[in-house]
Amino acid sequence: METLLQNPLLAPSALLLRQHTAGISEYELITLLKDQCDFIPETFAGDALSLFRTHFLLFNALYQLQEFWLNEGHGYLKIEALSIQFFPAGEQVSQVQALVAADSVELKAYYQNMQNLTETDRCDVESLLDNFWKKYVASDVRLNSLTVLELEDPVTMVDIRLAYRRKAMLLHPDRGGNGEELQLVNEAMEQLKNYYR
Q1: How confident is the model at residue 1 (pLDDT cuts 50, 70, 90)?
Q2: Domain boundaries, the chain
Q3: How many helices (H) and strands (E) does the chain have?
Q4: Please, are residues 173 and 182 in contact by the beta-carbon 8 Å criterion?
Q5: Mean pLDDT for the stretch of residues 173-183
Q6: Are 76 and 69 in contact (CB under 8 A)?
């Protein structure tokens, strides 16, 4: 591992990941690392900046391990917040190949650039969190709007327009429909138009 960038979470993360063959969540991994690494705050969830730094260092270590293990032929490390799992070489080859293909190159590059850690301050973290919640709420509104139009993912704007026209015709008061329900359909359509701009 001498070719890897120095990150104090590399060695303990590698050990823990090989011990948890069924996978482990980011939260569980950080909790276990807390016992082995003095610099992880005891209440790492309390302060947004220290949480970001802990998260960033962990994901930097994970992406380094992923690349190292893959290049050395040891296996593949699947990295998701809710499930971090090491797949040894030779096991479930087709599944591992699909995971490699699905990797987010941009996300990996973000965590491999240590300037993103050193140059991110408290205001940046607050902005990242605000943007996350805006996207989360927008996604929730989107799903609710799809439900009103009786649609499910995956869906295109063409599908949305067709469903909207169908529902609007059925619910229009001039055709014996319910005006209040039509208003909900109109609001759902507006939300979806805003989302897909």
Answers
A1: very low
A2: 10-120, 127-195
A3: 9, 2
A4: yes
A5: 91
A6: yes
Cα maximum dimension of the chain? 75
- Annotation: CATH topology of 127-195: Helix Hairpins (1.10.287)
- Convert the pLDDT of each residue in 113-136 to its tens digit: 999 999 999 999 999 888 888 877
- Other Cβ atoms closer than 10 A to 146: 20
Residues 6+ apart with CB under 8 A from 166: none
Helix (H, G, I), strand (E, B) or coil at 61: helix
**11-48: per-residue pLDDT in tens?**
999 999 999 989 999 999 999 998 887 767 654 556 88
The DSSP H or E segment spanning 42 is none
Distances (CA, A) of 140 to 2, 126, 149, 153, 181: 45, 21, 14, 13, 20
Q: Is the Cα torsion angle 21, 101, 125, 136 positive or negative in sign?
A: negative
Tell whether the torsion through CA atoms of 56, 75, 6 and 105 is positive or negative: negative
Q: Do you know the residue count of the chain?
A: 197
Distance separating alpha carbons of residues 194 and 197, to the nearest angstrom: 5
